[in-house]
Amino acid sequence: MAAAVTLAERGVPVTVFESGPVAGGRARRVTTEGRELDNGQHILAGAYEELLRLMRLVGVAVDAVLRLPLELRYTDGFAFRSLWLPVPLGLLGGLLTCGVPFAERLGAVRFMSSLKRAAFRIVPDVSVHALLERHRQNGRIGHYLWRPLCVSALNTPPEQASAQVFANVLRDSLAGAAGASDLLLPRADLSRLFPEPACEFVTKHGGAVRLNAPVRDLAALRGEFESVILAVGPHQLKTLLPGAVPEYEYQPIYTCYLQYAESVQLGFPMLGLADGLVQWAFDRGQLTGERGLIACVISAQGDHQQMAQDELAATCHRELKQALKDLPEPQWSRVIAEKRATIACTPAMKALKVASPLPGIVLAGDYTDPDYPPTLEAAVRSGVRSAEQVLSSI
Q1: What is the pTM for the complete model shown?
Q2: Could you tell me if 374 and 382 are in contact, meaning their C-beta atoms sit under 8 angstroms apart?
Q3: Is the per-residue pLDDT at 351 higher than 80?
Q4: What distance in Å separates the CA atoms of residue 383 and residue 9, rounded to the nearest whole number?
Q5: At the topology level of CATH, where does 250-343 sit?
Q6: What is the side-by-side order of every strand in the sheet holding 71-74?
Q7: What share of the chain in percent tops pLDDT 70?
Q8: For residues 376 and 381, what is the distance between their CA atoms, to the nearest angstrom?
Q9: Could you give the angle at which helices 102-117 and 163-172 cross, rounded to 10 degrees?
Q10: Element (H or E) spanning 31, and its range?
Q11: Residues 6+ apart with CB under 8 A from 101
Q12: Where are the domains of the chain?
């Protein structure tokens, strides 16, 4: 949709072929058992400049996201928050006042200062775990801050994740411009957050969006259209362009929705759970008005992949109950498992080039970004980049 909007804005007639009933790829609304849910609990960051720009372009309201200065609260009482001070004093003040031993707080400041002096370059690339070990950041500060940030941004365990890509994330968020590290929590379902307004923008500018229209053969499209942008997952790309995709490993994201009585709410829209399967719990009542609905997120690989959905839902409820005490039994639950949510973001990961082996075909997708982990921002940047490539050739 980012590619289509970019072309439509420039007056290029574009047709979008969407295989499913709803646009948006892995960030969309799904209907399950008569209920509308997001297929995952995505969050944005203030550093997501391209996504925010395109949201404004297609007319998404500013209040479609709840913007909060970076604040990570955990159910066990730990909290990290960036202070209301000029850059970079807000981050440094937050590190110096968070609830870990003073030596670790000072070490965290030195860690960020060291990365900045090195221009956030890690040569040679190593795992995030190795980087944290090197800078003595694997204590409580690593447990509550660095490791959760790694898993949330890269969707890859720190023992496997690329330290260079993690450094890129820290560079553009924690060490970025004012507001770059802000949390932006969606207050609308993911389809309304961008894909559906993008569809409306494309059609208003003379384009077309065809839903439930999977493409299985590129030959017909290449004969009908001057250029083709393939914006599909790498596992889907393999069937359309055999031999063009490296062998990637994949990482899952599981989201467990638990519906409680409407009176149930968390103390903050987003709470961390530090010691179980659940990493973050989101209060959909505070965010989208779905009172009593809690979304539990489990990113990256783990033991939960071997659990049946009922067992996983029961585990999520048990972990929430241990943290929140007087929690009633849920009225219903639903687990949404994206088993190939992202490619594994490892030091050996190779980003694809935008240009494909075939003339007239350009690639887009979060896995094509040479700098960012597979995120909404990487997906949008890749779409804009592929559209620019098309525009340069016509």
Answers
A1: 0.93
A2: no
A3: no
A4: 13
A5: Polyamine Oxidase; Chain A, domain 2 (3.90.660)
A6: 79-81, 71-74, 270-272, 280-283, 293-299, 250-259, 332-343
A7: 97
A8: 9
A9: 90
A10: strand 29-32
A11: 139, 140
A12: 2-28+56-66+190-246+352-391, 70-181, 250-343
CA 374 remoteness from chain centre: 7
Neighbours of 302 (CB within 10 A): 16
DSSP letters of 221-251? Answer: HHHH-S-EEEE--HHHHHHHSTTSS----EE
Above pLDDT 90, what percent of the chain?
72
Q: What are residue 186's phi and psi, to 5 degrees?
A: -60, 135
CB 313 within 8 A of CB 329: no
Residue 142, CA atoms < 13 Å, CB-side half-sphere? 17
Q: Tokens in use for 354?
A: 């935008």
Element (DSSP H or E) covering residue 255: strand 250-259
Cβ(188)–Cβ(62) below 8 Å: no
Residue 304: pLDDT band (50, 70, 90) is very high
Tell me which CATH code domain 2-28+56-66+190-246+352-391 carries: 3.50.50.60
